[in-house]
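Subject: Protein entry, chain in single-letter code together with its C-alpha cells

Area: Proteins and the way their chains fold up in space.

Attached in line: The record itself begins immediately under this heading.
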Amino acid sequence: MTPWCWLVLVAFSHVTSSTNPGVKVKLTDNGIEYGRQLGMASIQKKLNSIRIPNMSGSQRVSVIGKVKYSLTNMQTVAVGLPSSAVDLVPGTGVRVSISNGYISMKGNWRVKYRRLLRDSGSFDLSVKELSVSTDIAVGSDQTGRPQVSNVNCAATVGSVSIKFHGGASWLYNLFRNFISKALRNTLQKKICPLVSDAVSDLNPRLKTLNVLAQVDKYAEIEYSMVTPPAISKSSIGLSLKGEFYNIGKHRETPFPAAFFSLPPQNNKMLYLGLSAFTANSGAFVYNAAGALSLYITDDMIPQISPIRLNTRTFGLFIPQIAKSFPGLLMKLLVKTVKNPIITLEPDTATIQATSTVTGYAIQPNGTLSPLFILNSTTSVSARLFVNGMRLAGSVTLNKMDLTLETSYVGDFRVRSLDNIMNMVLKVVVIPILNVQLGKGYPLPSLGKMNLVNTDLQILKDYVLIGTNVEFTA
C-alpha cells in the first residue's frame, strides 16, 4: 500500500475534538482513482512474492497403484490484477475489491511408483479468475497518527490448471486434477495474508504524517483531525486543526476558527482549504514570541538613497533633533502592539498591522537616546503561491498612517515624516518580511509527496489549493 492511501484510510481514525477546523481537505474521484492504481501496484508486488513450499505426498492410482509425488522449486512468474475497485461506503468504510486476477507459476515435479520406477520434469501453473475483497479499518497509535489493519478479507481462486513437461504424459495425467486441487487450496490460503501485509506496510509510512510541522524556531503547525470525516460515494472530506503554536508552548489562540466549506470542484485529485483562522493563529504566535519587531539602522538603507537614518536627515523635519543631537546616527525600533489581522476576500489577501515606531539617537558610547514614539497603522496586500510542499507569499504596501504617541524633542508635525517612514517600510521592512514569507509554511503532507499542476484561489475567508499529486519512491 502507498502513502496516498492515507487520505482514504485516515477517514476512520479516532477523533476526539469537535472544534471547527482551520484546514479542510477533499479527496475527489480522481484522487481515489490514483490511490487505487498505487494500491494495486503494491498488492501486485506482494502477490509476486508468493512462495509455495515444496509439496509431497502419495496418491493411489487405479491403474498402477500407489504413486509418490513431489513438487519443488515453485515460484511466481507473473501476476495480473486487471480489474479492481476502491468503493467508499458513506459513513462506513473503504472496501477494496479485485476480480479476474491471474497468477502464473512454474516448478519441478517428480514421481515414484512400483518401487524403483521414477519420472520427473517441470510444470507451468496457471491461476485464473482470482478475486479478493477486503475491508480496511483504521485505529490510532500512541502518537495520534492513524494505524491501519485488514479485516474481513476473502480470496477466491476460480480455477487452477497445470501443464506438465517431460516424463510420461500418461502418468501425470492420471493425477493432474488432484495436484491442481491441492495447489488451488494452498494458494487460496496465502492470498489474504499477503494482502494484509500490504496494508500493514502502510503503517511505517503513516508515521511520516506531519501532524506537527515545524515552521522555524518560533512556530509549528498542528494538522491533527478535529472532526469525523465526511464520506460520500465519490469523495472524502477531512477536517484538520490547522493551528499555529509557539514551539513547546501550545497555548490556544484567543479567537475560534469559523466554519467554512469547500466549493463543489472535482477537476483535481485533491483540494486543500486553508482558512483565515490558520493565518491569524500564525500572526498571534509570532507576535507572542516577540518575532514581530525589528531594529532598523542606517546600514540597512540602500547606499543610493538620499534619505539616511541620522539626526541630520530627521533634523530637516524636526529641527530640535539636529540641534540637540547633532551628527549622530539613528536607530528605529518597529514593534507590533496588537496581533496583525489577515483578511481574505475573493482574489485579495490583506494584512493590517498596528505598530509603534520608536526613534533613537545613537550616542558615541552606544547608548540610545529616545527621540519620539509614533503609532503606525499599516495595510499591505499579499500575493500567495505554492512552493513545493509549502504555502509562500510576498507583500506590497497599500498605505501607512502615522500618529504621534510621545515626543522627547518637543512638538512636531507627524506628517512631515511620512515620506521617510514609507521609504523605510518599502526598502527595509517589507523586503525582510518577504524573505521570511518566501520560505513558506508547510502544508499537510505524507512521505515523499509532490504537488502537480497546482492552482490557488483566494476566496472569502479561506485560500483554496487545487492540485494533483505524485508520490516518489
